[in-house]
Write a structure and sequence with these properties.
The complex is a heterodimer of chains A (739) and B (337). Chain A is 31% helix and 22% strand. Chain A is α/β, with parallel strands linked by helices and 739 residues long. The longest helix of chain A is centred in the N-terminal third of the chain and has 18 residues. The chains are: A alpha/beta (739), B mainly alpha (337).
Chain lengths: 739, 337
């Protein structure tokens, strides 16, 4: 067993911990035999997919498990003292009996003074009905018995430590952006100067660039307050960026413990498969491998290795003989695997080393135009107005969600539309999917202009354009069987087919999308399927009409990491098989690169850069694309160092006729504040909406920078020297409420 | 606070068309149902000429739309018509009976809300324990028992067998009623320091108030329980738990306010059904309020009274929901943008 030493050497030490839930009489083994130590000032990452037990682990440490939980074995030590074992449990009760009351008194000095916890803050970590200030100062009021005024002062100071202004004190959570809320949560976590912070998915559901802000914040606080941190996430690159060493969890067990924060030398087939299943920005990956199957049910005992049923290297004995965490691969590197297929050599990532064949795009210009959108603009009328800070704007305000977007799609083309929350990418995708009408602009499909007010002609186009939605849990009617779901489009658009014909078509389609044998699935209902299988049904439902264009709106973002590659590969296969075109909407530029021929980057309703996938990801030009690429590759160093503090600014562009990105741009000059740049074609086939696109391009890449690895230093140099670019402006851009 | 004022104004304005619609529907309904109001007034054995004269006097020979405008015009002046059954203006009848019903409804609330809070929060904190199951079963039973049946049972038990409580009315007929101040017997006797009246009126109101509150207790406690359970599982409550805030603060401050939101909405909607409950309860206990008045009026086809009662209960519904909206906005800052 790893880390088998004196628990007193660690801030936190889990000794062979097992936790179970009782649900309707059945036992669910959420955590099994986890041994883990966290030293002072150490940051340990725990990676795993949903349901792997990582959140249970977090709540057990914080002693806030639900009532139906039990510690079935092992102990939790805090600074050498046992704080939980099978006798005490780690559950939280709102109504304590005498025994629990005595235990709680012991815990009192550890709760928040010793261990604090940060939940995924963007959604539900703050009470929606109380101001931020009240929730923060209650910590001091009730835990330190400070009086109200002192508590408020301390809270204000905490907010300033995480870079928030004092108006946030009087704001309600819904008035803050996701990133701001997450910073409030972090500020709360350090309120009583704990020794350990558990960060459970601290950046999930935030935008890529905002994620970096949070990461930088946590790092800064770790050094300032000498904190130990446990980072829990499904996001491998985030964990590797934040942690000194990493533990990988699967089915409630730690299956691999790495001595470092890099994944270069991973040994467990699951870890390896997980990494291989992720599209990359830095390597030329033409094929990512999907992991078959889905994580096992944790009900009852799992005999042998939990990953064996999905493992490509599994031997017969894997599913019967149990595995132990062993350090046979190297010092402090423990793997729970009896086969260790990668042990002999550095079995590198399965890459072909070949760049994606970008040439095919140019050579096939005679292919027919399928879709042409020009000048698409969509304005939403907002009655209530939107809030900026605490001040709400005028009663009526127009929100321009899509602003002058043009797109040409030929048959067989895939265009990736990359942007963050609120960039207007979904608005545009709904228009292309014929689900929403543009305020102005022209949409042509197969040479015919779409008239959105003519419902009849719109219906005739429906089979041609199909949309795959983000959430397969909501896009499929839970009361319909797979057969009904997949056959439904045919019932509507091909009423002449007989039931038998339809059934055959559905069966063929299920096989095509990888749900084989189809008889296993055809009579099931959505709740009996995994997320990946559901998304496959949704895809089958789209493709059964043989559409010419598929709009895929974040088709993998709701899926578990190990299931994403499967769906991505399926989409790619479908594209190749049927010569259909696709508009792939995503916030993840790496997956866009993997699946698309061309990429368009959208920011605040405008396309800021477009080009082939490799061009945009390897030689990004618009400062926003640069930031996106840098944030996505999990670079070394800080985003704010290379791109300036403003990159995290949430201040909106104040004037109509200025560059929308100027408030965040490290290169912004006076001209950026006074005129909106038009798209500049700075090199053949490439456009960027930036006054300095040409200069940036020649400065960054003409000297031979070819990969994004060098981007950081290059861009930093560019911002500093500003060669070929006028001097920096001096306007401040901080977000301030006007009282 | 400016946002809140705007919200309230907006809500109040939105209630105007609802009320207008209510007036129209009330009017049309009462003129569509069969039966001749004039017949009710002058009695069934009349000759056609007398009937014609009576109809003309009551304006019934005018076109319907004209009758409506006359009705609306009178309504705006506070004139609800004249009831021949009780032989006085409907408005006078309503004015004297409204506080009586109000007293009963308030008494029911005073009984129901604390019990429902206690049961709702208590069972949420003891989820799946015997108490929780017992409460669930009894709420189900309570919700399914019609009020007239419960009322009768109570009378049999507490009056007939135990002789603890009086079966009907507002006050012991041997006592003199306190002077009319609020129209609510308990308050009036309290203000005048009349202890005998106070005791008697409390004893009289107990049974009807309990009968009326049973349904509300059952409903409200269930809503609060599920609301509480939902909230207690949220990340922000888990965070509060990990912070080590005292449990009473977490439950009574952070969780309770969130759990209150659905309870407010449901209680306001429950008010819609309350009028029906009031009619039955007041009839069973001969409580001289609006419900009893409605019951008598319907029995006697007293159109002006029926219209007035329907209108008033409709108005009440609008007003209660308006108040609930405002309360909701006070509790939930996300509402009043």
């Amino acid at each position: 067993m790893p880390d088998k030493t004196d628990p007193a050497e660690y801030v936190l030490y889990l000794d062979d911990l097992s936790v179970s839930y009782t649900l309707k009489g059945a036992e669910i083994r959420a955590v099994t035999n986890v041994t883990l130590g966290v030293r002072e000032h150490e940051s340990v990452g725990i990676v795993g997919e949903s349901g792997c037990g990582k959140s249970t682990l977090a709540m057990a440490i914080a002693h806030i498990l639900p009532q139906n939980s039990r510690i079935t074995g092992g102990r939790i030590y805090y600074k050498g003292n046992v704080i939980a074992d099978s006798g005490t449990g780690a559950s939280y009760s709102f109504r304590m009996n005498r025994r629990e009351r005595a235990l709680e008194e012991k815990l009192n000095s550890i709760r928040w003074f010793g261990i604090s916890i940060v939940f995924q803050g963007a959604i539900n970590s703050l009470n929606p009905l109380f101001t931020v200030g009240e929730q923060m100062s209650d910590i001091f009021y009730y835990r330190l018995s400070d009086d109200r005024e002192v508590a408020r002062q301390k809270s204000r100071k905490l907010l300033s430590i995480v870079g928030l202004e004092s108006w946030v004190m009087d704001a309600f959570p819904h008035q803050l952006s996701g990133g701001m809320k997450q910073r409030v949560i972090i500020a709360m976590a350090i309120a009583l100067k704990p020794a350990l912070i558990i960060a459970d998915e601290p950046t999930t559901s935030l935008d890529v660039i905002t994620q970096y802000k949070i990461v930088e914040e946590l790092e800064k606080l770790r050094n300032e307050y000498n904190l130990s941190i446990i980072n829990i996430s499904h996001d491998i690159s985030l964990v590797s960026h934040l942690s000194d060493r990493i533990q990988v969890m699967y089915a409630g067990r730690i299956i691999e413990a790495l001595p470092e924060s890099r994944f270069a030398n991973v040994q467990h087939p699951y870890t390896r498969a997980l990494i291989d299943s992720m599209p990359s920005l830095t390597e030329d990956v033409t094929n990512i491998e999907s992991i078959p199957g889905a994580p096992p049910s944790l009900m009852g005992e799992i005999a042998g290795c939990a990953f064996a049923p999905r493992c490509a290297f599994a031997r017969l004995e894997c599913s019967s003989s149990s595995t132990e965490l062993d350090s046979i691969v190297g010092k402090d590197h423990y793997v729970r695997c009896n086969v260790l297929p990668f042990r002999s050599g550095a079995a590198a990532r399965k890459t072909t080393g070949q760049a994606a064949d970008a040439t095919t795009i140019n050579s096939s210009d005679e292919r027919k135009h399928l879709l042409s959108a020009s000048g698409i603009r969509r304005v939403f009328k907002s009655k209530q107005g939107i809030r900026i800070g605490l001040k709400s704007t005028a009663a009526s305000m127009d929100i321009v969600a899509a602003n002058d977007i043009s797109l040409e799609l030929r048959e067989g083309d895939t265009v990736g539309l990359v942007g963050e929350t609120g960039s207007g990418k979904t608005t545009f995708s709904r228009i292309v999917g014929l689900l929403d009408e543009p305020t102005s602009g022209k949409l042509e499909l197969m040479g015919a202009e779409i008239n959105f007010s003519d419902r009849k002609s719109l219906t005739s186009f429906r089979p041609v354009v199909q949309t795959i939605f983000q959430d397969p849990f909501q896009s499929l009617n839970p009361r319909h069987s797979v057969q009904k779901l997949v056959a439904e489009p045919l019932e509507i658009h091909s009423p002449e087919m007989t039931d038998d014909e339809r059934r055959h078509a559905v069966e063929r389609m299920l096989v095509t999308v990888g749900l084989t044998p189809s008889s296993d699935y055809i009579n099931k209902f959505p709740h009996q399927l995994s997320g990946g299988q559901r998304q496959r049904v949704a895809i089958a439902r789209n493709l059964i009409l043989n559409p010419k264009l598929v709009v895929a709106d974040e088709p993998i973002s709701m899926l578990d990491v190990s299931l994403r590659a499967g769906v991505l590969n399926l989409l790619r296969k479908m594209k190749e098989m049927s010569n259909m075109s696709m508009l792939y909407i995503t916030h993840d530029i790496a997956s866009a690169r993997y699946i698309s021929d061309r990429i368009m980057v959208i920011y605040k309703g405008q396309i800021v850069e477009e080009g082939t996938s490799d061009e945009v990801t390897q030689t990004p030009v618009h400062p926003y694309s640069v930031a996106l690429v840098l944030a996505s590759i999990g670079m070394e160093g800080n985003l704010s160092e290379s791109l300036g503090e403003n990159i995290f600014s949430e201040s909106p562009a104040k004037a109509e006729n200025m560059c929308k990105f100027a408030p965040r741009c490290p290169l912004a000059r006076d001209i950026c504040l006074s005129s909106m740049p038009d798209p500049v074609e700075f090199s053949p086939g490439r456009k960027a909406r930036c006054h300095f696109a040409g200069e940036i391009y020649s400065n960054l890449y003409a000297k031979g920078y070819v990969t994004s690895r060098d981007l950081t230093s290059a861009f930093k140099g560019l911002a500093a020297s500003a060669s070929g670019i006028p001097q920096p402006r001096t306007t401040e851009t901080a977000l301030k409420p006007e009282d | 606070m400016k946002g809140l004022a705007k919200y309230i104004t907006y809500r109040a304005l939105a209630a105007v068309p609802t009320i207008l619609g209510l007036i129209v529907v009330t009017f049309v309904l009462s003129h569509v149902v069969p039966g001749n109001p004039a017949l009710v007034v002058i009695g069934p054995e009349v000759n056609p000429t007398e009937l014609k004269i009576a109809e003309a006097e009551m304006g019934l020979n005018k076109p319907l739309y004209l009758q409506f405008f006359i009705y609306l015009f009178k309504l705006l002046q506070g004139n609800l018509g004249y009831t021949y059954i009780w032989d006085q203006p409907v408005s006078a009848e309503i004015a004297s009976r409204f506080p009586v019903s109000m007293e009963l409804a308030l008494a029911a609330l005073v009984i129901a809300v604390p019990i429902a809070l206690f049961l709702g929060i208590g069972t949420a904190l003891r989820v799946n324990k015997p108490v929780d199951h017992a409460t669930r079963v009894s709420s189900l039973v309570a919700i399914s028992m019609p009020v007239f049946w419960v009322g009768t049972l109570m009378i049999i038990l507490f009056y007939f067998y135990l002789r603890w409580l009086p079966p009907s009315g507002q006050l012991n007929p041997l006592l003199t009623a306190p002077p009319h101040i609020t129209g609510m017997m308990i308050l009036d006797s309290l203000f005048t320091g009349n202890l005998a009246d106070l005791l008697s009126s409390v004893r009289h109101i107990l049974m009807p108030a309990i009968a009326l509150s049973i349904g509300l207790i059952a409903l409200l406690s269930r809503i609060l329980r599920s609301g509480m359970l939902d909230v207690l599982g949220q990340d922000y409550i888990r965070t509060s738990a990990a912070i080590g805030l005292p449990r009473r603060v977490i439950v009574n401050k952070y969780a309770f306010r969130n759990a209150l939101l659905p309870a407010i909405t449901v209680s306001a909607l429950y008010a819609a059904g309350l009028m029906g409950g009031v009619v039955l309860t007041e009839s069973v206990f001969a409580w001289p309020g609006l419900g009893y008045y409605a019951y008598i009026s319907i029995q006697n086809t007293d159109y002006p009274s029926i219209m007035a009662v329907v209108l008033i209960s409709g108005l009440l519904f609008v007003v209660i929901n308006f108040l609930a909206d405002i309360l909701y906005a006070f509790v939930d800052p996300r509402v009043a943008l």
